């Protein structure tokens, strides 16, 4: 035990004598390195992590020491790690930003504007879009517009143009009105008829009247009452009226709307989809209201359809529009336990409309 203590004191004495031979600058550098390592250990992490600033400080201080002094220094990392940090700093200092060869990429705002013009105007080709961009202050070549459309997977204008009836309804919805008549059978098997109008842009429903016998005079008077309840600006904003070819929609009925500048569009025979929005509301009204209640009289039916129209216009959550032309539209598959749907003829007593 005594011999071990003598050996320890001898080692300490030799270490002190070696420190006396070193310069004060080397001692100061070693003290700074040790203090900085202590600050790293005092951060409270289970494992000391050297950030970029710590690496730069320790590397700069260690480079001031000689090799023998560097080996004798107590570091949390090996000298090879310090040299690797220094090499990274040198590489980062002398590395210049690398530019890809060729033309710079198109601005994101330009790309978004080109795609928006192409989607909202399906009849415009890349040269027409280039002309519109020049009017907006974007000086681009026609080939640039063509390249943007090709990368986005948008087909040329003749193939992209949609002339379907659904597209026409969507473009003209702000000034389009639909009219239809559907029937409801009472408890005593008396058939009552409901005349309604529906706005295509807002899907607001207006119940025009309920009667047992639909006549041309009654339908014309209901149309007059509807226009009289609107102001002039709203009535003149109707561009098209879609109706079926029933006998009670006569020339006098059409004249009521023609006088305010509305064009009457009768649907083709056997094509109820031309008035699909009105037909859809008939199905909703039947499923959610009239098929769940036993109607007793004409007054009772008027109360039910008025209440449902108020609910449909103000409280029913709207269905988000679906654009079937989008490429990202996913087809919802039926469940394996459900039988496949077939196109069955509609019953005249449950769905559909009169006329």
Strand content: 5-15%
Shape, principal axes of CA atoms: elongated
Report the average pLDDT across residues.
Answer: 77
The quaternary structure here is: single chain
State the distance separating the first and last CA atoms: 118 Å
Main pleated-sheet profile: 5 strands, mixed
Low-confidence stretches: 320-355
| Strand order in the sheet with the most strands | 3-2-1-4-5
Output the radius of gyration: 41 Å
Helix content: 40-55%
Order of SSEs: HHHHHHHHHHEEEHHEHEHH
Helices, by number, come to 15
Care to count the β-strands? 5
What does this structure look like?
The protein is α/β, with parallel strands linked by helices and 355 residues long. Helices cover 48% and strands 10% of the residues. The protein is built from 15 helices and five strands. It has helices at residues 2-21, 24-41, 52-62, 67-72, 79-93, 108-120, 126-135, 142-151, 157-160, 165-171, 216-229, 232-236, 251-258, 276-288, 298-314, and strands at 176-185, 191-199, 205-211, 240-243, 263-266. The protein has a five-stranded mixed beta sheet with strand order 3-2-1-4-5, with helices on both faces. A hairpin with a 5-residue loop joins strand 2 and strand 3 (205-211). Helix 2 (24-41) packs antiparallel against helix 3 and helix 7 packs across helix 8 (142-151). It is elongated and about 125 Å long. It starts with a helix and ends in a 41-residue tail after the last helix. 17% of the residues are buried. Mean pLDDT is 77; it is low at 320-355.
């Amino acid at each position: 035990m005594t011999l071990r203590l003598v050996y320890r004191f001898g080692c300490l004495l030799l270490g002190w004598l070696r420190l006396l031979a070193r310069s004060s600058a080397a001692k100061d550098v070693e003290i700074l390195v040790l203090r900085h390592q202590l600050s790293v250990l005092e951060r409270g992490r289970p494992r000391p992590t050297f950030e970029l600033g710590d690496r730069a400080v320790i590397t700069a201080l260690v480079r001031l020491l000689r090799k023998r002094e560097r080996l004798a220094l107590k570091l949390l990392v090996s000298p090879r790690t310090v040299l690797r940090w220094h090499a990274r700093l040198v590489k980062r200092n002398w590395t210049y930003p690398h530019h890809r060869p060729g033309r710079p990429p198109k601005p994101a705002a330009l790309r978004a504007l080109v795609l928006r013009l192409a989607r909202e105007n399906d009849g415009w080709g890349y040269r027409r879009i280039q002309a519109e961009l020049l009017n907006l202050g974007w000086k681009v070549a026609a080939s640039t517009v063509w390249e943007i459309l090709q990368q986005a997977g948008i087909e040329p204008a003749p193939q992209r143009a949609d002339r379907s009836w659904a597209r026409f309804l969507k473009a003209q919805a702000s000034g389009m009105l639909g009219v239809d008549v559907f029937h409801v059978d009472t408890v005593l098997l008396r058939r009552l008829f409901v005349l309604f109008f529906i706005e295509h842009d807002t899907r607001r429903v207006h119940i025009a009247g309920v009667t047992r016998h639909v006549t041309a005079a009654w339908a014309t008077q209901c149309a007059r009452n509807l226009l009289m309840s609107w102001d002039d600006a709203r009535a003149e904003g109707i561009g098209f009226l879609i109706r079926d070819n029933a006998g009670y929609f006569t020339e006098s009925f059409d004249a009521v709307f023609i006088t305010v500048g509305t064009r009457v569009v009768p649907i083709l025979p056997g094509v109820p989809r031309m008035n699909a929005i009105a037909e859809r509301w008939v199905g909703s009204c039947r499923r959610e209201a009239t098929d769940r209640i036993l109607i007793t009289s004409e007054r009772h039916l008027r109360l039910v359809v008025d209440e449902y129209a108020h609910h449909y216009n103000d409280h029913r959550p709207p269905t988000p529009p679906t654009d079937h032309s989008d490429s990202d539209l996913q087809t919802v598959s039926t469940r394996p336990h459900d039988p496949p749907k077939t196109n069955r003829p509609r019953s005249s007593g449950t769905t559909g409309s009169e006329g």
